[in-house]
From TrEMBL:
The keyword Glycoprotein does not apply. Gene3D superfamilies: 3.30.420.40, Actin, Chain A, domain 4, Substrate Binding Domain Of DNAk, Chain A, domain 1. This is Heat shock protein 70. Keywords: ATP-binding, Chaperone, Nucleotide-binding, Phosphoprotein, Stress response. GO terms for molecular function: ATP binding; ATP-dependent protein folding chaperone. Belongs to the heat shock protein 70 family. It comes from the Bacteria. Pfam families: HSP70 (PF00012). Coiled coil: none annotated.
Length: 518
């Protein structure tokens, strides 16, 4: 059975598989396009529309349309339509269902075994939510793969390394809603993620927001007695559509005019490439700051020059991106399949996983029909992970990180801790995930992701020791084991978190099967 790679994007998604001659190929949707807008329209309780038709519906019925749901992954933020609440996982599942249904129409076979890409900076909750979205869609999620790894695989980086020797690559990934920079090193068929950094809410849609605000300002200046066009859902939706089109056009043109229409009035607003660059300069500067942190950390780890700088993600087609990287770092970036590279690379990664799984099951190439030689891929932690502790002398609460951002995975770290009171009978183990861009021991700068309670024998003095072991695997599953040594009492916390329990996932899958998704 074929395996598929899916780029579940913030603004656009696509699906790919390996063709008959071993190359990754993107499968077009029923509308004939390579990419599908990540937009869901809840037309009725029984009918859900996904893709371009859903995006078109935002103008007439914006209250029943969901966009940018990827930014909500891992968060308990349900949205209600037609009397039913939908989690981000359920909404994303409908996008996945559209992708695989269209893939089946294109290939004639069921698309079930998939690898789904995620931003490198996604934490445990977001990665787990992505997996669960796939399960709700009825898919077997072989793995989730970081988008920069997928992009490097599609670029053919490993083949280049085999031919030209060791190489270092910087991937600058500015998509519709997220941003990552990642440094990878290549040696033969070994791909190692050296370090990564990014922001969950920084992407092309934020650039669109700046254009929307400018268009609305110009309209208000022209018609001060009119209502704000952003106060009307239909006018705002049309403005966002116009802003996206203008941004894309200005990647190739110097000028573009938008007709802002609201309450029967029209104002023609001329945009220039330079103006849009001025409106969005601080956003681009944020990507520069993150890139600089990544470059500096790579230098600390022995990589101070890059053989390639790859631009991935639709927003990197803006000329200002490449120009800024040249000016700030002296890079000569290469625009590499910005809209399709991640899905194509995810398909290669899916083939790799399938090969490994079947090899572990004892099947040879003559049984599987696969002749692919697996890659050796190692990655790093996207966030730091630890537990909340209390200083016995001062009472101050703080977070001790056992696994740090950019630690090589798999990672296993052991540390000793102590009780804070005499005759303390239990210890609450609160597992924390780094929330900000920089590791901090302040609890407010971290997110609680799981907890458990460890029993302590009676009559023990304060500072009675217990041990914690943090193990983080390459797919982002954190396992925490806390042990009281005298009695051997232990608890194990598998931190595969998310807003939905397995029971809720099963119920959501059944509910989705009753809807028509087109």
């Amino acid at each position: 059975m074929a395996v598929y790679g899916i780029d579940l994007g913030t603004t656009y998604s696509c699906v790919a598989r390996i063709d008959d001659v071993g190359r990754p190929a993107v499968l077009r949707n029923l509308e004939g396009a390579d990419t599908t807008p990540s937009v869901v329209y809840f037309e009725s309780a029984d009918s859900v529309v996904v893709g371009q038709s859903a995006k078109d519906a935002t103008v007439l019925d914006p209250d029943h349309v969901v966009q940018l749901v990827k930014r909500d992954m891992g968060e308990p933020v349900p949205r209600e339509f037609h009397g039913r609440a939908y989690s981000p996982e359920e909404i994303s599942a409908r996008i996945l269902r559209k992708l695989v249904d269209d893939a089946k129409a294109a290939t004639g076979e069921e698309a079930r075994d998939v690898v789904i890409s995620v931003p490198a900076y996604f934490g445990l909750a977001e990665r787990d939510a992505t997996r669960k979205a796939g399960e709700i869609a009825g898919l077997r999620v072989l793995d989730v793969v970081a988008e920069p790894i997928a992009a490097a695989l599609d670029y053919g980086a490993l083949e280049d390394a085999a031919e030209h020797g060791d190489r270092a690559i910087l991937v600058y990934d500015l998509g519709g809603g997220t941003f990552d920079t990642t440094v990878l090193t290549l040696r033969g068929r070994e791909l190692t993620v050296l370090c990564t950094d990014g922001a969950k809410e920084l992407g092309g849609s934020d650039f669109d927001d700046r254009v929307v605000a400018h268009l609305a300002d110009r309209f208000r200046e022209r018609f001060p007695d009119a209502d704000d066009p952003l106060s009307d859902p239909q006018s705002e939706t049309q403005l966002r559509k116009d802003a996206e089109e203008a941004k894309k056009a200005l990647s190739f043109r110097e000028r573009y005019t938008v007709r802002v229409m609201h309450q029967g009035r029209v104002e023609a607003v001329e945009l220039t490439r330079g103006l849009v660059e001025e409106l969005t300069r601080d956003l681009l500067d944020r990507t520069v700051d993150i890139t600089r942190r990544t470059v500096e950390l790579a230098a600390e780890r022995g990589v101070s020059a890059f053989d390639e700088v790859l631009l991935v993600g639709g927003a990197t087609k803006m000329p200002a991106v490449a120009a800024t990287l040249r000016a700030q770092f002296g890079f000569e970036p290469r625009l590499h399949n910005p809209d399709l590279a991640v899905a194509r690379g995810a398909a290669l990664y899916a083939l790799d996983r399938a090969e490994r799984d079947r090899a572990e099951e004892g099947a040879g190439a003559e049984e599987t029909g696969l002749t692919h030689r697996p890659y050796e891929i190692s990655t790093v932690a996207s966030r730091g992970y630890g537990i909340k502790v209390t200083d016995i002398d001062t009472g101050r609460e703080y977070v001790t990180h056992l696994v740090h951002a950019n630690d090589v995975l798999p990672a296993s770290v052991t540390d000793d801790f102590h009780t804070i009171r005499d005759d303390q009978r239990k210890v609450r183990i609160e597992v924390m995930e780094q929330a900000g861009a920089v590791e901090s021991d302040e609890p407010a700068h971290n997110t609680a992701v799981a907890e458990g309670t460890l029993k302590i024998p009676p009559g023990k003095p304060k500072r009675w020791p217990f041990q914690c072991v943090f193990t983080l695997d390459t797919s982002g599953l954190l396992n925490v084991v806390a042990t009281e040594r005298e009695t051997g009492e232990r608890i194990e916390i598998s931190v595969r978190i998310g807003g939905l329990s397995q029971e809720a996932v099963d119920e959501a899958r059944v509910a989705m099967s009753r809807q028509r998704i087109g």
